[in-house]
Amino acid sequence: MERYLPIRKVYAREVLDSRGNPTVEVEVTVGEGVVGRDGYTGRAIVPSGASTGKFEALELRDREKRYQGLGVQKAVGNVNVKLAEAVLGENALDQSQIDQLILEADGTENKEHLGANATLGVSLAVADAAAKALRLPLYQYLGGCITDRMPVPMMNILNGGKHADNTVDFQEFMIMPVGACCFKEGLRMCGETYQKLKEILKNRNLSTGVGDEGGFAPDVKDAREIFELMSLAVREAGYEPGKEISFAMDAAASELYLEKENAYYFPGESSMKGEKVIRTAEEMVEYYEKLAGEYPLISIEDGLWEDDWSGWRLMTEKLGGRVQLVGDDLFVTNVKRIRRGICEKAGNAVLIKVNQIGTLTEAIAAVRMTQKSGWNAVISHRSGESEDTFIADLAVAMGAGQIKTGAPCRGERTAKYNRLLAIEDRLGSHALYLVNRLENNYTK
């Protein structure tokens, strides 16, 4: 007999994210009067991005004077009235049906009516409440009883682009502990390297201030200088670049793209070199090829503009056999765009951000399509985060194998790492690490 766990209460409020901007928190109570006197309450805080793709689901902002127009009272109101009406009394254990009702209440493809920050908050909170009611850890509720794969951290140690106020044009530079035996040791290796990088920067009189995601934000001239600093930090931490720790980057190329010139402008590099630096798509691919040849660079995210399908095909042809090419702005966690990418051989991995699409069911569908096609899925945070750890459980539940959740500093980032440590501890000897396509194809 199918179990029924009714949704009894839905309530949202406006809270703050890690940038001090408003976002939506949702509480959903299930089972009141059926499972326990007071029921079980699940919570979710919705993240927000700074570098956003134009094809993402709409994040609804008030556009009024308070909070410089970034308030989310309209989205909160939509949760407390329209979405509450849609799901109250429904079975919280039927996540796909709940999310379908949420989609119908909004009625638009990109969530522009109620806001993806409203729809996602309800969707995630329902799942959290259901897991609590069944007394299951969230990762097991989402992924099933044999969930056991821990993700490799793609740890951001240097920020640039829209995530920092410095001369670095590319947005993120990351390290991946591909030679670790387990998540716990991989996290330790990354943490030690991060601290060594801080020492190196300080000794060179470079800034040790951090960007939105906790990576350091010094003024340096180009990507090569950054990779040299990273290589030195890895070695001084006692590890071998490429064998124990490899590199990844998020170019966020859409932020550099000049549509009129059909090329990519590097303002920071231009200011440091005293000349205007512009690269075509072909030159960008050549640049990445050289970087991957000189350094243990095994993953490049958003290497080209979010609608440059021909450029992505070229990049995949040239680099796809030895470098993970991750589409973020290109795919925006949307199965239609992922399907096109698979068909056109544009990329070989997908970044999964739940707030890009607006419901848990749609995000899981994106992961499943990606994995079924033999591509890698990377679960990711946003630059505007919170103490919510949902994506840590999601990464394990989906067996994604990789997670982006920032540097080993700032509470909203370490909360996810600490949650993953707890999950691995709970899994014990059953926990698996680095059992995916990354191990075979991209480590050097």
Count of discrete alpha- or pi-helical segments spanning 4 or more residues: 15
**SS class:** alpha/beta
Oligomer designation:
single chain
Number of strands: 17
Mean pLDDT: 93
How far from one another are the termini?
A: 52 Å
Helix content: 25-40%
Q: What is the overall shape?
A: globular
Strand content: 15-25%
Which value, in Å, is the CA radius of gyration? 21 Å
Structural account:
- The relative contact order is 0.14.
- Helix 2 runs antiparallel to helix 3 (116-133) and helix 5 crosses helix 6 (223-236).
- The radius of gyration is 21 Å and the shape is globular.
- The mean pLDDT is 93.
- The N and C termini lie far apart (52 Å).
- The strands form 4 sheets. A 9-stranded mixed β-sheet has the order 5-16-15-14-13-12-8-7-6. Strands 1-2-3 form a 3-stranded antiparallel β-sheet. The protein has a 3-stranded antiparallel β-sheet with strand order 9-10-11.
- The chain is built from 15 helices and 17 strands.
- By secondary structure, the chain is α/β, with parallel strands linked by helices.
List keywords for this structure.
single chain; 444 residues; alpha/beta; nine-stranded mixed β-sheet; globular; magnesium ion binding; Enolase-like_C_sf; Enolase; metal-binding
Could you give a short description of this structure?
The protein is an alpha/beta fold and 444 residues long. Helices cover 39% and strands 17% of the residues. The protein has helices at residues 73-87, 95-106, 116-133, 138-143, 183-203, 223-236, 267-273, 281-294, 309-319, 335-344, 354-357, 360-372, 390-397, 411-427, 437-441; strands spanning 7-16, 22-30, 40-45, 149-150, 152-153, 155-159, 172-176, 246-250, 257-258, 263-265, 278-279, 297-301, 324-327, 349-352, 376-380, 402-404, 432-433.
